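Worked example 2:
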Amino acid sequence: MKTIELTNEAPERLDKVLSQILDVSRSKIQKIIKDGHVTVNGDFVPTKHLVDQSDNVEVNMEELTPKKTQQIPPNLNILFEDDDVLVINKPAGLLVHETETSNEPTLVAGLIAHDSKIKDVGDNRNRAGLVHRLDKHASGVIITAKNQETFQFLKEQFKNRQVKKKYTVLVHGQLEEPHGTIALPISRAKSTGRMAAKPPKQGGRDAITHYELIEQFPHHALLDVTIETGRTHQIRAHFFAKGHPVAGDVLYKQRNQKLLDIGRIFLHARELTISTPTEKEKIFTAPLPKELEHVLENIPKT
């Protein structure tokens, strides 16, 4: 059993709190509670039992971890490869690396299937030489190192903010300004599975996002976005905080907002500029996926 640290001060339903903290569906949480795999202060309780941060909640995490089955590695859309790096155009829906609760094909599995030596590169064997990542439901350019020397070379550039990352993003609403910078620190939200962008005085890790308006539609805005930092969910959290959530995002969604149902988020990493061991500056680009082109072709223009 694992003790789960609750952060909600006001009492909330047990199933709701655990679903948010563990990022697991509420129906799955309700099932393990009913099956006796969750205790509150040593007792079995119903799903609607109210809990707060003063309670001791324990969960049998094995019930949330799917039995690992052999997955077929995904085919890779390779943009570039040499002896040092492998650059991929990741499709939306593909998980970058496995998690405690995942049981699905990953980009890492595809990388290792392509070149088995990659599995020994990097600081973490689960990440196979990757020095950055993309959200599962985002698409675009992602680079991995094929040897340890290159991994350190790339890692230092990300650490020192020498890498240029450009994204094409569609957000909800009418923008007040055609360009701007969002510089709000980001930290994990206390009671949800989201990241939260907050005023500097409230703490968090610094995060800087720049944007330029490409085209304004009646209810959406197409943006050219660059980021100086690479925080988890940075673009999604920043625009959500500004009242302009990314289209298709079910996690960072405003109350009563009409969701643009596109089966993914409209966030595409279209360009990565970085130095490689053989070139001082190399620009990798990935075209906008057809499903996102379709969204733009059919979005209301009036």
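The chain is about 20% helix and 25% strand. The longest strand covers residues 267-276.
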